[in-house]
UniProtKB/TrEMBL annotation, chain A:
GO terms for molecular function: structural constituent of ribosome. One of its GO terms (biological process) is translation. Gene3D superfamilies: 3.40.1370.10. It comes from Acyrthosiphon pisum (Pea aphid). This is Large ribosomal subunit protein uL4m. Pfam families: Ribosomal_L4.
UniProtKB/TrEMBL annotation, chain B:
Belongs to the mitochondrion-specific ribosomal protein mL49 family. InterPro entries: Ribosomal_mL49. GO terms for molecular function: structural constituent of ribosome. PANTHER family: LARGE RIBOSOMAL SUBUNIT PROTEIN ML49 (PTHR13477:SF0), MITOCHONDRIAL 39S RIBOSOMAL PROTEIN L49 (PTHR13477). The keyword Methyltransferase does not apply. Keywords: Mitochondrion, Ribonucleoprotein, Ribosomal protein. It is found in: Mitochondrion. It holds the Pfam family Img2. The gene is ACYPI006840. One of its GO terms (cellular component) is mitochondrial large ribosomal subunit. GO terms for biological process: translation. This is Large ribosomal subunit protein mL49.
Length: 282, 177
């Protein structure tokens, strides 16, 4: 409901507004688009490049224009499936708070009177009926609520999780590169047809380098619940596995490569691998 | 502080001017009493330059963003050798780590009773590498020692039972990897 209201508001905006928002990034995209053949940052002694077609979204029929070089360390790494699994488990757990709750003896709502005299009844001695020995009494070592399961995965496991998942997606032909996310209409049927005709998975994740997405694709994907838009800073292992197909723009590929290669080759890696502190930025 | 108060009392008795007294009574390490910072030209003489010859001295101070490529010299005192073989020379390839070191490690487990030599970053045909290393180690130790290996093809890991780190490193360096 809220999203539909938002969609109405976005439709009401003048088209120049979103265009102006994207103007800066579009200019950058176009300038970089000519330099695709330029080799990325670090090669080392690495294997042959990975490559992908740069296709388009403005026609339903696929019309690949150029080939983009993908860095083998980011898109062609040996996938560590164990690290991918660790990332998924971490992403599920760090936001999970357990509300399972039991009462300790002092909290049980029951009389605190001594149930029977200490001696002379032939019965076992008891001081209170709240104790765990009684029915309706407290629970020993039971769960106490608001138990957070937050923990931080080691930094390089997070980095290798991203490179492994990107490599897996590429080698399984679930990663596609497009020049930009511009589509001619905001009709969700158009994007559905496009995804069907290109045999992309039913669920698709579109990734751009900026969070100011083009107007048409935002409105179209607002109606489709199994497709989503995401900026590069939101890229994560869980979402990449949740959506079957990953569609990256050229600018997004550049940014992902630059950031991940920096992390893989930075000389001050020990700064990033320090113990995680909630009040400190790593 | 106590010394200063003592000093001030002595000053008052001897009747020194009030201005000097206030100077003496100035407190350290207080936000309010500390003087307001002035323009930076008051503290140091400087001039702004935009010449590229001088900028290179600034660049020298900036932290590096990537680990630099080491020299190709083979006679370094540390014994470090550069990787001379290129990808494609052998059917297999072992990439150096980000610090340009050999990715050969000793994994000690089971309270120190199990020692496993692990080679990471293996690319290409890992089975050929396994065969070659096994052959080399058999030649070194003779046929009596069993060289048990484990190959993880997906991750590119090769594990050899026992502590053969120096032997494997020697072999890899001899191959130029």
């Amino acid at each position: 409901m809220l999203l539909n209201c938002l969609a109405k508001q976005i439709r009401a905006l003048p088209s120049t507004f979103t265009a102006a928002c994207r103007l800066s990034t579009v200019a950058v995209e176009n300038s970089e688009f000519n330099e695709i053949e330029e080799p990325p940052m670090v090669y080392g002694g690495y294997t042959e490049l990975r490559q992908a077609w740069v296709s388009n979204l403005d026609t339903i029929k696929e019309n690949p224009s150029t080939i983009i070089d993908l860095h083998p360390q980011v898109f062609g790494s040996r996938p560590r499936i164990d690290i991918i699994h660790e990332n998924v488990v971490w992403q599920k757990k760090y936001k999970y708070v357990s509300y399972a709750n039991t009462k300790v003896t002092a909290e049980v709502n029951m009389s605190s009177k001594k149930p029977w005299p200490q001696k002379g009844q032939g019965r076992a001695r008891h001081g209170t009926r709240r104790s765990p020995l009684f029915r309706g009494g407290s629970v020993i070592h039971g769960p106490r609520s608001h138990t957070t399961h937050f923990y931080m995965l080691p930094f390089y496991k997070r980095v290798y999780g991203l490179t492994s998942t990107l490599s897996v997606k590429l080698i399984q032909d679930d990663l596609h590169v497009v020049n930009n996310l511009d589509i001619p209409t905001d009709d969700p049927g158009y994007i559905n047809d496009l995804v069907d005709s290109r045999l992309w998975g039913p669920s698709v994740l579109f990734i751009d380098d900026t969070d100011t997405m083009p107007k048409n694709i935002s409105l179209a994907l607002n109606q489709i619940k199994h497709m989503n838009l995401m900026p590069v800073y939101g890229l994560n292992v869980y979402s990449m596995l949740k959506y079957e197909t990953l569609v990256l723009t050229v600018a997004a590929v550049k940014k992902i490569q630059e950031r991940l290669l920096y992390q893989l080759h930075r000389p001050d890696g020990h700064q990033a691998t320090r113990k995680f502190m909630l009040n400190k930025q790593n | 502080m106590a010394v200063r108060i003592l000093f001030k009392n002595a000053m008052l008795r001897s009747g020194i001017s009030l201005r000097l007294n206030s100077l003496i009574y100035k407190r350290d390490s207080s936000y309010r009493s500390s003087p307001i910072a002035q323009d930076s030209s008051c503290y140091a003489k400087y001039e702004v330059s935009s010449s590229p010859e001088e900028w290179k001295f600034v660049e020298r101070l900036l932290p590096l963003t990537t680990i630099p490529t080491p020299s190709d010299r083979k006679d370094l005192p540390s014994g470090w050798q550069p990787q001379t073989a290129t990808f494609g020379k052998y059917p297999y390839f072992v990439h150096r780590t980000r610090n340009h070191m050999l990715p050969v490690y000793l994994k000690v487990s089971m309270r120190g009773t199990r020692r496993i030599t692990q080679i990471n970053n293996v690319d290409g045909n890992i089975w050929m590498l396994e065969e070659a290393i096994k052959k080399y180690l058999m030649r070194v130790y003779g046929d009596k020692k069993i060289i048990a290996t484990k190959v993880h093809e997906v991750c590119g890991h090769l594990c050899i039972h026992g502590d053969h780190v120096s032997r494997v490193k020697e072999w890899l360096l001899k191959k130029g990897l």
